[in-house]
Amino acid sequence: MTKLKDLQRGELGVVGAGIFSILVFSVYFLYIGNKEFIWYIGVMIGFLVLLFATLPYTKLSLTSLWGLCLWGLLHMAGGSVQVGDSVLYAWKILPLLDRGGEFYILKFDQVVHAFGFAVATLVMFEIIGPRWRGSRGLLSFVAFLAGMGLGALNEIVEFAAVLVFPATGVGGYYNTGLDLVFNMLGAGLIAVSLYLYGKK
Description:
Blueprint: H1 9-32, H2 35-53, H3 55-58, H4 62-78, E1 82-83, E2 86-87, E3 92-98, E4 104-107, H5 108-128, H6 136-164, H7 173-197
Antiparallel strand pairs: 1-2, 3-4
Helix pairs in contact: 1-2, 1-4, 4-5, 5-6, 5-7, 6-7
């Protein structure tokens, strides 16, 4: 297990930024009584501990670590920062496709999903890569599938929040479907980039 004294300066910076962000948003969510996002804070704390405890084995790059940290920050901000009558997650950035209700592209939530699972796919590429004996193309495809699997796991966590809390901002069927589509777009974009430009 990684100890703080064993971390490099860049890694310590990510730890500090992650802990600071979680503390600030935890206080804020407790203050406004947002029980749903307190649930997510618990998940993120567990994830942060797991991430740095396994660094000697995963050997993730600073790019991946900062990407994960930024993803967490965007997620917490998305559920709390007010934009008009709603929160940042509901912010409609561009009216690329609008069928009414939840079926709207492009929203802040969708951008975060694409970014987040691009980072998740990069992480899986870096974890699997040193142990891989096949082609880089197949490695990129496997990392893409792994990123998509993590995206599905994220939707299960959101579903669990719906079951536990009577009122959430998770959304319905269209929201879940669009989340998965943008997970795929982010994962696919980074997988292609890794195939073309990444190092095994």
